[in-house]
Amino acid sequence: MLKLLAIDRFTLLLFLMVILASFFPVSGQGAQAFSVLTTVAIAILFFLHGAKLSRQAVVEGIMHWKLHSLVFVFTFALFPLLGWLAKPILVPLLGQELYWGFLFMCFLPSTVQSSIAFTSVARGNVAAAVCSASFSNIIGMFITPVLVAFCILGQSQHGFDPTQSIIQITLLLLVPFILGQLLRPYVFPLMKKMPKVVKVFDQGSILMVVYGAFSSAVVAGLWTQVSWTTLLLLILACSVLLTVVMLLALYIPRAMGFNPADQRTIFFCASKKTLASGVPMAQILFIGQPLGMIVLPIMIFHQIQLMVCGIIANYWSKKAEPQLQE
């Protein structure tokens, strides 16, 4: 219970990267070299993600099309719609750049690891969670750039073409993921023997991107543009968005007749946004834009969703058995 509720070490390291970048930002040629190292680390990360995904779990979960369709609608339709409807309120409060980051967060796919972990704790349909979360991330590599192109960059960069971004994301994220799947029989046994090495790449690549993003943002004057009041308003906006989506993800599956295990799966897969895929995507999509402002909303939303889902998953784990027997 304490592990689910507490701010974990990775989150503390994320904040440490922000602090480090604020006082010791990397710039110039150092920033270019650091960017290359970060790109390599991200490619390795998604190679390992591909190697971890069980094909048997995919086969078991892939036939549950009704569940996957509902998660897809939440992730790539409801979230963007809510983000777009919030524009008249958030732009005056947060400013244009932070609102772009908030909207970009709404365009992102669901998480993989935490969706599966929380579904497992709550005794939901884990096989369907694996398939749904993985499908969300794969299809998100194509849908997210298109949404960003038309709803964000189309307003700031005339004639922006998402094709090049999709190609870059495919090469950086999808190709390593597929290679990991193909080489899974050889790589996965080694991963099981070296879980700490896998965790280093899993978290280290994200920390590197966050440090690089905030370094460039600090050099460009990030903290002269974001006040404590604005930061608190952003936290409030993320909390309200998560609350609305979670309430809908709780009651809509019930109304549609899903069993309790599937309801839990939909709840956790449909209500979250990925930091692991979101930060690398932002690095590709928002070249020349204030990247620190863009990734700040997803960093805040990420921590809020982990804490809230931890509480709910722990609560459901205690009452799951009686409900599943009904």
Low-confidence stretches: 1-6, 322-326
- The beta-strand count equals 0
Total tally of structural domains: 1
Reported for the largest beta sheet, the result is:
none
Architecture (CATH level 2) name? Up-down Bundle
Q: How large a portion of the residues is in β-strands, by DSSP E?
A: under 5%
The amount of helix comes to over 70%
Global outline: globular
Radius of gyration: 19 Å
Rounded mean pLDDT score: 82
Number of helices, where a helix is a run of at least 4 consecutive DSSP H or I residues: 16
CATH topology: Na+/H+ antiporter like fold
CATH class: Mainly Alpha
Oligomeric state of this protein:
single chain
Distance between the termini: 26 Å
How would you describe this structure to a colleague?
With 326 residues, this protein is mostly helical. The chain has one domain (26-315): Up-down Bundle (Na+/H+ antiporter like fold). 84% of the residues lie in helices and 0% in strands. The protein has 16 helices and no strands. The chain has helices at 2-5, 9-23, 28-52, 55-62, 65-85, 87-94, 96-107, 113-121, 126-156, 162-182, 184-193, 195-219, 228-255, 260-270, 275-285, 291-324. It is globular and about 50 Å long. The two termini are 26 Å apart.
Which features would summarize this protein structure in a list?
326 residues, mainly alpha, Na+/H+ antiporter like fold, 84% helix, disordered C terminus, transmembrane, membrane, Bile acid:sodium symporter, Put_Na-Bile_cotransptr, Na+/solute_symporter_sf
